[in-house]
């Protein structure tokens, strides 16, 4: 707040403090040096986190790892896909997603995404017959039509991995996102609802997938015995799978665990903040926030909206500048150089296919962070800055 009572542009990049409750456990770990998840005979912080996260989401098994990218990679490896298997992914996602597919010796097949940031089901249905697996990124928490995707994939016998990196707390038709496909993967990297700097976790109800992922994550020798309920499956796979050593360490779990009880509150605040800003943006003739699909109850910590009504690239750039002059960073996905969410920048894929619908969306879709800690005056400041910047350029 400025001295005259005016709200200054809020800093949307600062994280929230880690709950005080983490301190005692971190001190204990520092003084004992017990940082490796498999040293303690039982109840290591990573093991406790897995039990708590599985209970929170309602899944049978959870495996905490070094990042969501590691969880995506291990999920693909755990499906035991043949080399060169084709994996459908949305063309609107973060570069880590196609990277995980390449890392798993598979081939990503990009599916068109619509103006509402969700998978184009026509393109999906057309590409599915050639696919061996599907990885659905709920990009920025936007949920694609999971009923239609699961119906098509179940009929075709194609396994679905959910990339729920941004979707902790999102619910689809009463089911937690991440529990609908065979595997769900979440991120604890700093710009997510739960912040550990880095970290990820995968959940599944399938004991074979869980056992394979556990062994490959680095549960060497008989360390897998510290994962409950998987004795037969883990004993079967021991020494038959490579060790990629993507484990989480105890300090990360100590930072994450006290944040889990805060998830419900953060979801509620994030949704209220998002909807408040969305309402203001939708009053502008130049901006539109696409509606979520009916079954989705969202858990946003950012907002995406489209520049609507025939903006040129130059105008879209001017809009970014005008918002920045008001202290609000707006990123048009397709206009910032080298953006890792623009599929044409994924040069590591070799030849990237042309996807006109996704490209058109990315050239007018805007991204603004809305951390759940923002106050109503701060949210209103951001909304007004965006609306005024659009009016300055187009008005
Ligand atoms: C959609 C999406 N999937 C996966 C990831 C990878 O997460 P991590 O940074 O934990 O590897 C990210 C990272 O932000 C992401 O945006």
* Cα-based radius of gyration, to the nearest Å: 22 Å
Q: What is the number of helices?
A: 13
Under CATH, the topology of the largest domain can be stated as: Aspartate Aminotransferase, domain 2
Q: Describe the largest sheet.
A: 7 strands, mixed
Structural domain count: 2
Supply the CATH class of the largest domain.
Alpha Beta
* Low-confidence spans: none
Succession of helices and strands: HHEHEHEHEHEEEEEHHHHEEEHEHEH
Any idea what the CATH superfamily of the largest domain is called?
A: Type I PLP-dependent aspartate aminotransferase-like (Major domain)
User: By helix and strand content, what is the structural category?
Assistant: alpha/beta
Would you kindly provide a written description of the structure presented here, covering whatever features stand out?
The protein is of the alpha/beta class and about 400 residues long. It has two domains: about 20-260, 3-Layer(aba) Sandwich (Aspartate Aminotransferase, domain 2), CATH 3.40.640; about 260-395, Aspartate Aminotransferase, domain 1 (Alpha-Beta Complex), CATH 3.90.1150. The protein is built from 13 helices and 14 strands. The strands form three sheets. The protein has a seven-stranded mixed sheet, sandwiched between helices. A four-stranded antiparallel sheet has the order 10-12-14-13. A three-stranded antiparallel sheet has the order 7-6-11, with no helix packed on it. Strand 2, helix 4 (about 95-105) and strand 3 form a beta-alpha-beta unit. The radius of gyration is 22 Å and the shape is globular. The model has no long low-confidence stretch (mean pLDDT about 95). Bound molecules: pyridoxal-5'-phosphate. Pyridoxal-5'-phosphate binds near residues 69 and 200. Pyridoxal-5'-phosphate binds near residues 93 and 94.
């Amino acid at each position: 707040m400025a001295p005259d009572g005016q709200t200054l542009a809020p800093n949307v990049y600062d994280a929230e403090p880690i709950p005080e409750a983490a301190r005692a456990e971190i001190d204990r770990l520092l003084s004992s040096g017990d940082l490796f998840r498999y040293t303690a005979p039982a109840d290591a912080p990573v093991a406790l986190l897995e039990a708590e996260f599985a209970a929170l989401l309602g899944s049978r098994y959870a495996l905490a790892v070094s990042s969501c990218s590691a969880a995506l990679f291990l999920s693909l490896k755990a499906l035991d896909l043949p080399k060169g298997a084709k994996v459908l992914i949305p063309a609107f996602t973060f570069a880590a997603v196609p990277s995980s597919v390449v890392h798993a010796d598979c081939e990503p097949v990009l599916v068109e995404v619509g103006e509402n940031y969700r998978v184009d089901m026509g393109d999906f249905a057309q590409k599915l017959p050639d696919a061996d697996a599907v990885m659905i990124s709920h990009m920025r928490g936007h949920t694609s039509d999971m009923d239609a995707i699961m119906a098509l994939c179940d009929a075709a016998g194609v396994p679905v991995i959910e990339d729920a990196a941004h979707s902790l707390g999102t619910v689809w038709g009463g089911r937690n996102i991440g529990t609908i496909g065979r595997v769900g993967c979440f991120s604890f990297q700093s710009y997510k609802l739960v912040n550990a700097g880095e970290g990820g976790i995968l959940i599944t109800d399938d004991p074979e997938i869980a056992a394979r992922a556990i062994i490959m994550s680095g549960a060497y020798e008989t360390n897998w015995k510290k994962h409950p309920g998987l004795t037969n499956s883990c004993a079967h796979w021991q020494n038959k799978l490579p060790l990629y050593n993507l484990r989480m360490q105890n300090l990360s779990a100590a930072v994450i665990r006290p944040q889990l009880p805060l998830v419900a509150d953060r979801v509620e605040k994030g949704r209220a903040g998002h909807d408040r800003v969305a309402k203001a943006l939708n009053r502008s003739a130049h901006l539109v926030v696409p509606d979520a699909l009916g079954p989705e109850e969202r858990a946003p910590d950012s907002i995406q909206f489209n520049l609507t009504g025939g903006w040129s690239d130059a105008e879209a750039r001017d809009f970014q500048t005008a918002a920045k002059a008001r202290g609000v960073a707006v990123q048009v996905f397709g206009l910032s150089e080298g953006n890792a969410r623009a599929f044409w920048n994924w040069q590591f894929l070799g030849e990237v296919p042309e996807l006109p619908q996704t490209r058109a969306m990315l050239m007018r879709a805007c991204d603004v962070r809305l951390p759940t800690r923002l106050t109503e005056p701060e949210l209103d400041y951001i909304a007004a800055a965006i609306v005024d910047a659009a009016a300055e350029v187009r008005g």
